Amino acid sequence: MPELPEVESLTHFLRERAVGRTVLGIDVVAIQALKTFDPPVTALGGLTITGVARHGKFLDLDCDGLHLVIHLARAGWLRWRDDLSGAKPVRPGKGPLAVRVRLAPDEEGLAPGFELTEAGTQKRLAVYVTTNPDDVPGIAALGPDPLDESFTVDALKRIVGGNRTQIKGLLRDQKIIAGIGNAYSDEVLHAARMSPFKIAATLTDAQIADLHEAIITTLREAVERAHGLAAKDLKAEKKSGLRVHNRTGQPCDVCGDTIREVSFADSSLQYCPTCQTGGKPLADRRLSRLLK
User: Fold this and answer.
1) What is the pLDDT of residues 63-79, one digit of tens each?
2) 202 lies in which domain range?
3) Is residue 112 part of a domain?
């Protein structure tokens, strides 16, 4: 799933390549991906992309005041094409292509654009056309952005204070903190040397400060690694930079212990027992507790 660092990089990528270009047309292949009908998606045709922004995990393309908002969800991705002039007409089907955005040809006659694709059977990729991004329910409900200057240690202290949620779930909740998903919550908790099942309200002031530092450092380092990369290279870069997520059975880079996993119905988490749980493995079942 693309998370804050990848979406931030895609934002910069599109600013460099799409801003200033005119939208020639938008082809919606997977009709379930389009979540709005007024204004119609055809209203974007002929407008110029004047800016690109990020809201949590949402991409926001400002087209002369009309916004194309994209959420890539769990298995979606953005694929840039330098020239779509020879692309085959899109047809609804079983392929991964969901939406194609065609831009007007440049001076050399190339017609660039990008395609939104989604793998798997659970189709959750979402596209909105709106005059105000805050009208998108997911954006309106977002918590603070961890890369914003207002996200201080005191702000995090207010968030965790009295919250009986396990810290792993809290970090992933977009209504509490925007942009962190399954992968980077694993990375943050490993950096903070904290159990994923620790109750947020039990954190001491020192632990909150450590968690804040881990959030900021982990995300900023990931953003820096991804900066300047082409969209097609972001997935591989993300995978190469992870220390615990999706590394079950491999040695921890910090202590050498074996990274372990807790599986759930539709996801899993990874952690290092030595770094995070005092050397004790977590039971591999929902709502696990430390084995006694």
Assistant:
1) 999 999 999 998 899 99
2) 153-276
3) yes
